[in-house]
Automatic annotation (TrEMBL), chains A, B:
It comes from the Bacteria. Its cofactor is pyridoxal 5'-phosphate. Belongs to the class-IV pyridoxal-phosphate-dependent aminotransferase family. It comes from Winogradskyella luteola. This is Branched-chain-amino-acid aminotransferase. GO terms for biological process: amino acid biosynthetic process; branched-chain amino acid biosynthetic process. Its EC number is 2.6.1.42.
Length: 356, 356
């Protein structure tokens, strides 16, 4: 499948950089893109010569299968720049593996690891000016794959396009979020595609989330679809609960995304001597802990927001406010992660990946 | 929302028809499209002036939300031509209502009914040569809506495109199909989007279906995700079971598509004096009926295939062959439906909709 040599990326540089038109102190997430994009087509059973080209609109048939059957997967990762101008990714192997797990579940071809890294690194070097130093600044990287075959039969496509686009970012959420525990709607089924970053998983959450927003909540914490008794994850974050000084988070399964930030937090907890149980978490337990005062924190983990503290939750019309404590685990993990990501601290697990 | 007058469709006709390049006796489903397409954009909170233009590739940003979050819904319907050249649709109101139900579940704007009909009718009149008379021939019509806003935040888009493309068709499946009852994978969750024609529901089925195909089965009959004990529907068909002379089909719920063919068959059964129970159907019951000989037929219903008889099913490594009987309900419903669709019989329920 990798007959083409990824070293032969065909590069067409943009003639005019847009960078001076961008207000980096005032970025809305995901609206501004860098000067270049990486594109690689899958045709005739193999990935063709990869290309880097000016960021631009694509030409695509209205019958392309992605529009009809949602055969599309994606990733989300970030690049960081330290004060010396060095550029780092955070555990990029995890994203490379995960996009291929997602692809396999949607009957899409694997994208070769060497193409992934070669393409990403070449792109980041070209657009390195777009990565601003300083904690909180980053370049959000969006690799994705879409089914392009122009034929509307409901079966896996024969042609695909792998693309990487990049968008300069500040932290995704700045404020603590108010969340609603799902009682009626669900995000994914046992035996479904919830563990994959499959495009369709996200649109499915928009309507229930809009209902939650009308009630004054920012996001939904999804529960298991069968009983709605167990807390699983949020729309783009895994979820941790702190009861007394112990952390609890739901185990991975075929409904829950295996988050890179989640697994990093579990490791950091171990390093820091914080007990972390990976097990089912019931709504009942969390409500009881909120009532008796032992629930100290809830926070979400994800690449976009890093760590997102929760300030309130609702379930069955009961609303619980969670006081934001000083010395929270949320802020501890956030600063620990940011320091590793921005090359400000030791990297004993080898999570940083330098782009040279 | 409907400030624009749908009568003002802007029409750009194709200069050269492709119709003479098409072998109508040798059509592969969904690969060839007619000369024109209908397009209407949603911008600034409203649907803009609709357009009919030559069928062509579109220009779309790589950041368009449909590629990332699967915010896309579709419909499938058919146009038929009788021997006098009259053109008919079959219960098109159902499709118009359903695409808007699907859209609502995916937090997408409603497409106005007058736009839908005006656009569809104008398009069909322009491309009427593509609809061939004769039972079995039809023009498959694919209305769909995609989120076009070029911004990758995981929330409902602000801009959309509604499109109709049309593809000449023969019957989708010709042979009876062999099916596998799902034991591990699932199609949709309670509280999910299974009832909607949401793009992502379809890609999610490709991989499990490919596993079934490796075992020699054409399709999967999905079971409920919680217990896998109850039979729900196939990938693009609802399912009926005939035990002795009685039909049984699963009730609609938020996991199952409310099929137009299904509801027509339920009505026709009533007209023909055939008992039809709409209730949960257990795997156990169907296996027992297959063993004791009371299971006479299983068939699927859907716009593409009309009625698709099942010749075998597998569950838990038990394979049951179903002898194809003469005077089957499947063939009775198929010919009854085709006759109504092709204006060959009375239409006492007013299901035909003539395009004038
Ligand atoms: C459904 C879901 N859960 C959790 C996460 C967090 O994963 P990660 O930490 O790898 O960004 C994401 C976002 O990437 C997600 O989409
Ligand atoms: C999941 C699913 N079930 C059933 C059907 C059959 O519905 P209809 O009879 O309206 O074509 C379809 C196809 O349209 C479908 O996609």
């Amino acid at each position: 499948m990798t007959e083409t040599n990824p070293n032969e990326i065909v590069i067409v540089k943009s003639e005019n950089s847009k960078i001076n038109t961008v207000d980096f102190s005032n970025l809305i997430f995901g609206r501004v893109f860098t000067d270049h994009m990486f594109v690689c087509d899958f045709e005739d059973g193999k990935w063709q010569t990869p290309q880097i080209m000016p960021y631009q609109a694509m030409t695509i048939e209205p019958s392309a299968r992605v529009f009809h059957y949602g055969q599309a997967v994606f990733e989300g990762m970030k690049a960081y720049k330290d004060e010396n101008g060095k550029i780092f990714l955070f555990r990029p192997n995890e994203n490379c593996n995960r996009i291929n797990k997602s692809a396999a579940r949607l009957a899409m071809p694997k994208f070769p690891e060497d193409y992934f890294f070669k393409g990403l690194e070449t792109l980041l070097r070209l657009d390195s000016e777009w990565i601003k130093p300083g904690v909180g600044n980053s370049l959000y990287i969006r690799p994705f794959v879409i089914a392009t075959e122009p034929a509307i039969s409901a079966s896996p496509a024969a042609s695909y396009r792998f693309i990487i686009i990049c968008s300069p970012a500040k932290a995704y959420y700045n404020e603590p979020v108010r969340v609603l525990f799902a009682e009626k709607y669900s995000r994914s089924a046992d035996g479904g595609v919830g563990f994959a970053k499959a495009a369709g998983n996200y649109a499915a959450q928009f309507y229930p989330t809009s209902l939650a927003q009308k009630k004054g909540f920012d996001q939904i914490i999804w529960t298991d679809a069968s009983s709605h008794k167990y807390l699983e994850e949020a729309g783009t974050m895994n979820i941790f609960f702190r009861i007394h000084d112990k952390l609890i988070t739901a185990p991975n399964n075929d409904r829950i995304l295996d988050g890179v930030t989640r697994k990093s937090v579990i490791q950091l907890a171990k390093d820091l001597g914080i007990e972390c149980e990976v097990r089912r978490v019931s709504v009942k337990e969390i409500k009881a802990a909120a009532k008796d005062g032992s629930l100290k924190e809830i926070f979400g983990t994800g690449t976009a927001a890093v760590i997102s503290p929760v300030s309130a939750f609702e379930h069955a019309d009961d609303v619980f406010e969670i006081d934001q404590i000083k010395d929270s685990y949320a802020s501890l993990f956030k600063s620990t992660l940011l320091d590793i990501q921005h090359n400000l601290s030791d990297d004993k697990h080898g999570w940083r990946y330098e782009i040279r």
